[in-house]
Design a protein that fits this description.
This protein is mainly alpha-helical. Among the domains are: about 1-135; about 200-300, 2-Layer Sandwich (Ribosomal Protein S8, Chain: A, domain 1); about 430-505, Cation efflux protein, cytoplasmic domain (Alpha-Beta Plaits, 2-Layer Sandwich). About 70% of the residues lie in helices and about 5% in strands. The chain contains 15 helices and eight strands. The chain has helices at about 1-25, 30-140, 145-190, 210-220, 225-230, 250-270, 275-300, 310-315, 330-345, 350-360, 375-385, 390-395, 410-420, 430-445, 475-490, and strands at about 205, 235, 245-250, 320-325, 325, 450-455, 460-465, 500-505. The protein has a three-stranded antiparallel sheet with strand order 1-3-2, with helices on one face. Strands 6-7-8 form a three-stranded mixed sheet, with helices on one face. The longest helix has about 110 residues, at about 30-140. The radius of gyration is 54 Å and the shape is flat.
Length: about 500
């Protein structure tokens, strides 16, 4: 490093000399002497300055090198001391291991001696055992293997007899206790469940303020009533009953739509066929929203969560359906609570039981009406909307139309029987009546071109509405005759049924 600084100084001197030569060639002799003198002085100063810097740098580097060397020497001494200390510890550990190895060798020798003694004793034991067995065989007259087999067979027979006796006692006790426990659970469940009697009917009374309002509802030549009946499928009975109009239909949903529509029309004051159709459509949409809200509220009340929204809608529709005169939603809630109570008594999951009980009659309110029993249809709907397998099986088997594979299936069957069999719960006549009317409507709706079909006047009249674009005037007469013939051939009904086919042509224009 010092040599490099010397070389730098020499380089500076060479530069100064070169400058001197150039100046000596470019200027006159007098000026060259002055410049040369100055250059010499400056070159000397540069040389001294570079030598001084080189000497300072050399001393600095030397000091750093000595410090580094001292530090490394100190680290080496520390490492050497650590190595010596570790060597001492290793020597001590080696001595301990050698001592332990000697102890192990001594113990190994002792174990070998003990094993030799043990083997000698085992040989003596086997010899004595064989001698004893030979003596026993001589005394008993059979070999040891034959004696062992006899003993095992005797023990098996004795164990089988005792086990069968225990099983019989246990089964008898279980039968006695099961009967008592089943009666206790059913009685407690019935006592803890609030019940209602059947109140469904086919007539709704709509109150009115005066005969003037009644006249406006009837309309000129009865056109308003006809429009309302055609839009809702409800027979509107206007008689001498003061301050009331009767809405007659077997379908509670239709009666509710007619009641709400009449209520809005009377409040609004504008009652004419176009307004009636508009209000009926609006009320139908509002009722759909109310059905959804009813389903949600029912699920919340029963603590049932995670149902598919389509199942919630079907639960809401139960409010407007009946089963043998018993409100279907009330019946399903009752079955759900009975199932949950019995499941709790039996140590099962009451939430699953309550869910299956609520959904057990869901097939009765399905949109489609295939040729399936309602229990099978309900199971298919539950499976379609991803319900648990035990819930699906409980729904499908609650009338024993599907094999039971879940512990919750008998609960739903029993709860449904309890809810429907109690006094005052159901009326058989109205259910068959509703089925007959629904069959008439479905028969008429099966024909092409039919848009709506309503059974009115307690099933004595079937009103069929067809599309004007699909059915002409000649086909109307043929259609009424065909429907009448099919009803006569396929259905059972009292008296006569009048079939009225309505074909209406409308032309709509908008003035702007």
């Amino acid at each position: 490093m010092f040599l490099s600084y010397i070389l730098v100084a020499l380089g500076g001197a060479a530069v100064a000399l070169a400058i001197y030569i150039v100046i000596n060639r470019l200027v006159s002799k007098g000026q060259a002497d002055t410049i040369i003198e100055k250059a010499k002085i400056e070159a000397e100063n540069i040389r001294k300055q570079k030598e001084l810097q080189a000497r300072e740098k050399y001393l600095q580097l030397k000091s750093e090198h000595e410090s580094y060397v001292g530090k490394k020497n100190s680290e080496l001494r520390d490492r050497e001391n650590n190595i010596k200390s570790r060597e001492g510890q290793i020597r001590e550990q080696a001595a301990d291991l050698k001592k332990k190895q000697g102890d192990l060798e001594s113990q190994k020798g002792q174990l070998k001696a003990q094993n030799a003694k043990l083997e000698a004793k085992m040989e003596e034991y086997e010899r004595l055992t064989q001698q004893v067995n030979k003596d026993l065989e001589n005394v008993a007259g059979m070999t040891a293997e034959e004696a062992k087999k006899m003993l095992v067979e005797n023990m098996k027979a004795e164990a089988r007899t005792e086990a069968q006796a225990y099983i019989n006692d246990t089964m008898d006790e279980a039968r006695m206790n099961a009967a008592k426990e089943a009666k206790r659970i059913v009685i407690n469940t019935i006592q803890r469940t609030a019940t209602e009697t059947a109140i469904e009917n086919a007539v709704t009374t709509f109150p009115i303020d005066s005969d003037e309002v009644k006249g406006r509802i009837i309309g000129r030549e009865g056109r308003n009533i006809r429009a309302l009946e055609a839009a809702t499928g409800v027979e509107i009975v206007v008689d001498d009953t003061p301050d009331a109009i009767l809405l007659s239909a077997f379908d509670p949903v239709r009666r509710e739509i007619a009641r709400l529509s009449l209520h809005q029309l009377v409040i609004d004051g504008r009652i004419h066929p176009a307004r009636i159709e508009e209000v009926v459509n609006k009320v139908s949409k509002q009722l759909d929203d109310e059905i959804l809200e009813t389903g949600k509220r029912t699920c919340i009340d029963l603590g049932i969560h995670g149902l598919n929204i389509e199942l919630v809608k079907l639960i809401g529709r139960m409010k407007y359906r009946s089963s043998y005169g018993q409100n279907l939603l009330q019946h399903s809630r009752e079955v759900a609570n009975i199932c949950a109570t019995m499941a709790s008594e039996l140590g099962l999951n009451p939430k699953i039981a309550r869910r299956a009980g609520l959904l057990h009659d869901i097939g009765k309110v399905g949109e489609s009406d295939p040729e399936y029993p309602h229990a099978i249809l309900g199971a298919k709907l539950a499976e379609q909307y991803k319900e648990r397998p035990e819930v699906v099986n409980a729904i499908g088997s609650h009338h024993e139309e599907m094999e039971m594979s879940s512990v919750y299936s008998p609960l739903v069957l029993v709860a449904d029987a309890i809810s429907g069999a109690r006094p005052g719960a159901r009326r058989e006549v109205i259910e068959s009546y509703i089925k007959r009317l629904k069959g008439m409507e479905d028969l008429a709706a099966s024909y092409p071109g039919v848009t709506k079909s309503y059974a009115i006047q307690a099933g004595r009249e079937l009103r069929v509405i067809v599309g004007a674009d699909e059915v002409n005037d000649e086909q109307v007469a043929v259609l009424s005759t065909e429907i009448a013939q099919r009803i006569q051939d396929e259905m059972t009904y009292p008296g006569q049924v009048k079939i009225t086919v309505i074909r209406e042509t409308r032309s709509v224009a908008i003035a702007k």
